[in-house]
Design a protein that fits this description.
The structure holds two protein chains of two kinds.
Chain A (H helix, E strand, L loop, with lengths): L9 H26 L10 H17 L1 E6 L3 E6 L4 E7 L2 E5 L6 E4 L2 E9 L2 E11 L7 E5 L7
Antiparallel strand pairs in A: 1-2, 2-3, 3-4, 4-5, 6-7, 7-8
Chain B lengths: L18 H25 L7 H23 L8 E5 L30 H7 L3 E9 L3 E12 L2 E12 L12
Antiparallel strand pairs in B: 1-2, 2-3, 3-4
The chains are: A alpha+beta, B alpha+beta.
């Protein structure tokens, strides 16, 4: 007869492993469900709004053949001969496209505008300063591609 | 065969495992956790960039777009290499502003402290450096670095762009 001594049982250990794997699987499913829909993250914070704006401006300038930049308004002429307008008004940045309602991209701005430099007529810059002084202002530029790269 | 548990009682159907068996099982469990951890890491939402990193990326983007705009105006234009230079005129005024950030807002030195103080202060910590290389196949590579300090540590963001090098005269042909 064998007399065995031990400090636990394999069943308890297996149960522990099972519970651990079950917990990890549930966490994974929760995480996947949380970020498979990218729109849930958009607009929730200022960086999200900025990112969405930069993406939309990139898309528009990729298809733009020319632009007209004023202090608070930007007009882009696309290869399809449509006009896309971006403008700062009422502390917000809006995009307007024919046949679609105006879309607000960034809100609660203290200041914002478009600018061009005499040395680079094919480039326009956009800058935004949020109302909350603790939030980050941004500055970047875009060159119309006319449908090319 | 009758078994005894750790208390020496017979016939209960439960038996204690030896320490060695438990350690082996723990080892197996640890190995099983590796793929679980990997899947957990993959399923995690991407980390959001810090404000500074995001701003640096946009500044690098400005430089790349400016180079593209200059190339559009003059297909022979190629940017030169630059050392680390501030993107706004520093308060001490010793270092020149990076050429890619000059002439903005109608000022020779770009963003002006008095005109847009919030933007000036936000961009003051950043410095710009451009590296360029000729590559085989007639390409010209540009790497734009935007450097800054965050939490006392130097950091940098970079963007690359490959441009076709301007056509060079064919020197291998027959001389007329």
């Amino acid at each position: 007869m064998t007399r065995r001594r031990g400090i636990g049982s394999i069943e308890i250990l297996l149960l522990g492993i099972f519970l651990l794997m079950l917990g990890a699987t549930l966490v994974m499913v929760w995480q996947f469900s949380r970020h498979t829909d990218p729109t849930t993250l958009q607009g929730k914070d200022l960086i999200g709004s900025y990112e969405r704006t930069i993406e939309a401006l990139s898309r528009d300038t990729r298809m733009a053949v020319s632009f007209l930049a004023g202090r608070e308004h930007l007009t882009l002429e696309t290869v399809a001969s449509t006009t896309i307008e971006w403008g700062f008004s009422g502390n917000a940045l809006r995009r307007t496209e024919p046949g679609r309602p105006p879309e607000v991209f960034v809100e609660n701005l203290r200041e914002g505008g478009f600018t061009t430099a005499s040395t680079t007529p094919d480039l326009f810059s956009v800058w935004m300063i949020p109302m909350d002084a603790g939030q980050m202002p941004v500055f970047t530029s875009f060159a119309p591609r006319g449908g090319g790269l | 065969m009758m078994r005894f548990d750790s208390n020496g009682k017979a016939g209960s159907g439960r038996r204690g495992e030896s320490l060695l068996e438990l350690l082996l099982a723990a080892c197996l469990m640890t190995v099983a956790l590796v793929p679980l951890f990997q899947v957990y890491r993959l399923s995690r939402p991407p980390e959001r960039a810090s404000d500074m990193e995001f701003s640096a990326t946009l500044l690098a983007r400005h430089v790349i777009e400016r180079i593209i705009a200059l190339r559009k105006a003059d297909p022979a234009y190629l940017p030169g290499m630059t050392s680390e230079e501030p993107v706004v005129a520093p308060a001490d005024g010793f270092q020149p502003v990076s050429e890619h950030f000059r002439a903005l807002f109608g000022h020779e030195n770009g963003i002006d402290r008095n005109e847009l103080p919030a933007l000036y202060e936000a961009l003051e910590p950043f410095r710009c450096r451009v590296d360029t290389y000729y590559l085989d196949g007639g390409h010209y590579k540009i790497i734009v670095y935007i450097e800054y300090e965050e939490s006392g540590r130097p950091k940098r963001v970079f963007l690359e762009r490959l441009l076709p090098a301007p056509a060079t005269p064919d020197l291998t042909g027959d001389t007329p």
